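Our collaborator T.R. sent over the components below with a one-line note: 'Predict the complex.' Nothing else. No constraints on interfaces, no templates requested, no preferences about which chain binds where. So this is a plain run: every listed entity goes in together, and whatever single assembly comes back becomes the starting point for the next discussion.
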Amino acid sequence: MTSTPKGPRNLSGIEIRPVYGPEDVKGLDDRRDLGVPGEFPFTRGIYPTMYRGRLWTMRQFAGFGTAEESNRRYHYLLKQGNTGLSVAFDMPTLMGYDSDDARSRGEVGRCGVAIDSLADMEILFRSIPLGRVSVSMTINGPAIVLFAMYLAVAERQGVKFRDLQGTLQNDILKEYIAQKEWICPPAPSLKIVNDIIRFCVESAPRYHPVSVSGYHIREAGSTAVQELAFTLYDGLTYVKSAIDCGLKVDDFAPRLSFFFNAHNDFFEEIAKYRAARRLWAREMKSRFQPANPVSLALRFHTQTAGCALTAQQPYNNVVRVSLQGLAAVLGGTQSLHTNSLDETLALPTEKAVTIALRTQQIIAHESGVANTIDPLGGAYYVEWLTERMEAEAKAYFAKLDEMGGMVSAIERGFPQGEIHRAAVAYQKEVDARERLIVGVNAYAEPQEHRVPTLRIKGEVEKKQVQKLRQREKSRNVKKLASALGQLAGVAEANGDLMPAVIAAVKAEATVGEICEVFRRVYGRYRETVSL
Amino acid sequence: MRVRTNRPREKVKKLRVLIAKVGLDGHDRGVKIVAQALRDAGVEVIYLGIHNTPEEIAASALQEDVDAIGLSVHSAAHMTLFGEVLTLLKKKQAGDIIVFGGGIIPEEDVRSLKKMGVKEIFTPGAPLEEIVKFVRSVKITRREAQGNRQ
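Returned assembly:
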């Protein structure tokens, strides 16, 4: 994609000229292509008032160790001015294994919080009013299980499902493409996604059942254009799949949300967000003809790029994150996670995460950028780049359509291969010093700048396994077996899984036990390695 | 899933390295770039892909008779997983296979891992050139000692 560049190129390999003028945006029609904020095609933002009405949600992704430790971190974050929560689960939970599974050795509570059963989930949200705080959960393969637990906790708190806000990531397509935490093959996985969407349409209408995620695609090494194209195409795939299973587009499309990365090239990122809104609105309109304009509006969360942080001179990461966060805000994000300076080394310390949150607060309250909607709208360069990125993403759409859709493209390894090639090209540019990374291939310093890192204690795993075994002993075995048996029956009959999973978690079935039913009935996904 | 990226030639003994993700995390951007860079540098790379257990790593390493094993971990499970691989290799009298790795690993753990017997750890920002140089410095003594099974 990127050959040896003559002039500067952005991270999508697009050549950038020294100056742009009216001739570069000759084709741009203000009314047709930009519109006003809150109206089709939403290029300038999805709300008429944007941050004047309400600032973006400051939502720091967090979770480590046991449910008790993570709950303490959530209370700390809320006290510091975090306005939403975002749960990071550990690897066994993300893969649908219990803490005592042989495959979980060494992983329990390490890169997220360990959740085995409903009891853990209750501790995780202790004294957090789920009717008021919006909670985002990064969970995909086992999303239905964790969502069912969340519903059960809400019920015990006396919160009505219709008052639940928040977001379930529940984006399995990008797992096959990039993040690679899966349980079952695409077809049954998409069926589970649809069951969750249907449940939300009927019972939890303020909850976002899917967060279509480009973040992980970008972290896996894609360009900004690929992130834009594959993510939006994943979104279109979910819409089609939900319609095919009998849902009406206007019943669920207004509750879909997106999740993008904020990488280093400032204007490229801003153009990406603007192009994403316009392209989504146009494609939704032409492909599915929704009647409700909200179905055309692309809402998104942003996280600054983990892969852009450096282990060398880690304090510089604070500056990188401010620029990336600023790009997200100028691009009109609805919520934001800013990375902590120590995240190339470990999960963040409380001190590091506080600086990251303060960074957002400074952007919000001191910089003045929240006063005006889409302040870069109309800038020749930004409008030119927005158009260019939209066009390049559309070229990918045509390819994906031709391949028969995203699932068959994934089976052929197409998006995976494109991302891998882009990652290799980027690394070569960095190694050849065609792209300078401060502290890494330029301005390197011989001595290390040490920062304190968060330590997860070794006994977390032991404690969690003990807790799990104890709870398993006190369960009503008959009730449990019947709930799991019923779940298997529903899965085999291709029925609606939501009620059966809710019943199973209430019978204290573990994440591993429920996912084992899925593995047995639907099979495991195995990737064809492409190198 | 196993991908052999270079066919072994009959006469010339090539350095043979097993590259894999161990544990449950699927962050394979780095490991795939490293595997490809080593292959481009003329190393015979056996890429095992993601989601391997220490048992699977050790068994493949013996079966393929590799000179070195490169492991990637991004889930902070490195202390346990590297430790188990080293123990299994020793148990199978293959403690001479060089083990190296990379990932999100704090400095303190890098020191502990090296004490445990991990030869080198590469963290974010490590240039590919450095990794390739390290791997090429690995001696092909193992198959000479045992007779090349190929």
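Summary for T.R.: Chain B has one domain: 3-7+14-136.
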